[in-house]
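Mods, move this if it's the wrong board.
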Amino acid sequence: MEKDSALLIVDVQNDFCPGGTLGIAGGDDIIPLINQYIELFQQQRLPIIASRDWHPQVTKHFKEFGGVWPVHCIQGSTGAMFHAGLHLPPDTLVFSKGMDPEKDDYSALHAWSKAGTPLPTFLTSEGIKHIYICGLATDYCVRQTALEGLRQQFAVTVLVDAVRGVDLEPGDSEHALAEMLAAGSRFTTLDELRRTA
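Not the wrong board. Structure tokens:
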């Protein structure tokens, strides 16, 4: 990992894990791996960033208001909290998205800090040029984050052993991974990264 790298953990929240209102099969299985990635990035003194869905009660993102998704990750709710098994360090940088009721905001690059700084602005200001992405869900927020990152000229590596997909249609996650790879994303796993760290 280069000194201009950061770990970006996408939406590992209760509502996206089994038992949540939009629970992804195996969504919590990747958490022990993500914790090991966190340790690896901490050892290298590299930033750890966590994005979260942070929706208002009324948003076009939800089925009842014209969207495709059940209600999830309402601001301040238990479902919107990061999964208790995720060992986020105290200095984790949290960025929130989905606050605009008119937008879906799948990409973590559309997220903002509590102080109102957009994630891309923060990354650029900190000299971060390479983002390592893990989390939920492969075929939506991970996919859009990777593609948006590439569009904004960041190097993108997807931690393919630490992502899981919704798969509304069979094969959605496989197609998403193929699209990310074709667009220029790199793929790696914990074992591979440890060998090169």
